[in-house]
Predict the structure.
Amino acid sequence: MKKQPKVSKEILALRRSKAYRKAYLDPEFLNRDELRPVRLQLELQKPEMTLAEYGVKSTVVVFGSARIWDKEQSSRRVNEMQALLKKNPKDQVLKNKLASVKRLEASAKYYEVARDFGRLVSTAEILKDRKLVVVTGGGPGIMEAANRGAHEAGAKSVGLNITLDMEQGPNPYVSPEFCFRFHYFAIRKMHFVMRARALVVFPGGFGTMDELFEVLTLVQTGKKSSLPIVLVGEDYWTDVMNFHNMAKWGYISKEDLKLFRYAETGREILEHIAAFYKINPLLNGDHKK
């Protein structure tokens, strides 16, 4: 066997230098501000290429609060807060948190609705040549419930997780091959919309509102082909948002109020989506991006 020539200390030092690293294997280089356009493109391309390889073309996107838990989790959170407050009865922050988890306990019903819908839509024949794949933000709460329903139906589902200081990791029901992680909200939101054939929105806070109004705006302005948008929990939506007053003041048209429907159960959500494509068969194809 031919003996390898001895490499000098100087050459070894050069090979270990930062400058000698291949650019795409250099994390410090890739994370520089100047490389943001490259990182944006990578975040766009990785999920796009993966989903294309698996033939995922049509999705139903489910938005909703990460703070909505199932009945067991909700009850446990209340008990935990009560126990903490018992040890610190004058702690106003704990009092506020206890009041919050008690209010949220009533929202456990939405977890079950999302779970039921995820199961129903994953086996339904709505589009002429393919099933709808459930897509969520991949986190806890409503996201977990929808992914869980799809998982229980034996179907694949997608999770588009985002890196946040306060956010938990992906829920355990997302299909491993479709469990994506994003840094940029903008690219993540593009992936929510690009393949969406239906949008289902449960009660939520700022993030849920942001995602809902992005899609409403895209459809209203024609940037996205029309699709069924279903708001779950009419009592919540009519309490926190007065869409009719928007129209009354002239900031949206009365026709814009037809962009969405309300539903209360998984079955009702599915029926709204099916009815939309029965009336609009020409939209039962590839949508705008």
